[in-house]
Amino acid sequence: MDVPKKHLIYLTGFMGSGKSTIAPILANTLGYAHVDVDEEIERLTGKQISDIFSELGEEYFREVEYTILRELSLKDGCVISLGGGTVTNEPNLQLVKSSGILIYLKVDSEQIIHRLKYKTDRPLLKSNSGIMLDEEELRSRIIILLEKRERFYSQADITVMSDDLRVGVTVDKIVDGLRKFDR
Ligand code: S3P
């Protein structure tokens, strides 16, 4: 297929929206490389995300995330799966929007709860002492965070509803949306 005008494609969306699943398949479809911001953070620090949060704190995590994002924004021919919080501040959002096409994988909060309720690797969805939340606590945590973040996510160039988990359909919708960026 034709190569889009900007050669850098970012995937954003809440935790559990499918960014890390969709990104390599999208990259393969476009003939691009794929990089995952969280994986790069883990590689650079030699620590798992949940350990970075518990040992060094969220602020440190966000600093490393910004450093990695700046580096990745210089790439070409690449699909980058972001963390769910990466574009939820203005400097990061502007960096992403000025260097590539931002795609928002939008998923309904009930679907996110369903996908994440047994996952143990999301520090922001645990209590301060690191304990898993019960379903009601998880629901209200997700709803509050989503509400705060929607104004950033909604500035994406392309929004794709990806509730149904059919990966092929989601990838097709993205590729379709990218056509308007073709030369
Ligand atoms: C975060 C999402 C996570 C990871 C970290 C913080 C967030 O990535 O970057 O736990 O702020 O939403 P995923 O969206 O891939 O789960």
Detail the poorly predicted runs.
Answer: none
Classified by CATH, the class of the domain at 5-107 and 150-164 is Alpha Beta
Strand content: 5-15%
Could you report the average pLDDT, rounded to the nearest whole number?
Answer: 93
Outline, from the CA principal axes?
Answer: globular
CATH topology of the domain at 5-107 and 150-164: Rossmann fold
Placed side by side, the strands forming the largest sheet appear as 2-3-1-4-5
CATH superfamily of the domain at 5-107 and 150-164: P-loop containing nucleotide triphosphate hydrolases
Percent of residues in helices comes to 40-55%
How far is the first residue's CA from the last residue's CA?
Answer: 12 Å
The small-molecule ligands in this entry are: shikimate-3-phosphate
Secondary-structure content class: alpha/beta
Radius of gyration based on Cα positions: 16 Å
Q: Tally of extended strands?
A: 5
Contiguous helical run count: 8
- How would a textbook summarize the main sheet? 5 strands, parallel
Order of helices and strands: EHEHHHEHEHHEH
**What CATH architecture label of the domain at 5-107 and 150-164 applies?**
3-Layer(aba) Sandwich
Give a description of the structure:
Strands 2-3-1-4-5 form a five-stranded parallel beta sheet, sandwiched between helices. 51% of the residues lie in helices and 13% in strands. The N and C termini lie close together (12 Å). Helix 1 packs across helix 8 and helix 2 crosses helix 4. With 183 residues, it is an alpha/beta fold. The chain has a domain of 118 residues: P-loop containing nucleotide triphosphate hydrolases (Rossmann fold, 3-Layer(aba) Sandwich). The structure holds shikimate-3-phosphate. Shikimate-3-phosphate binds next to helix 1.
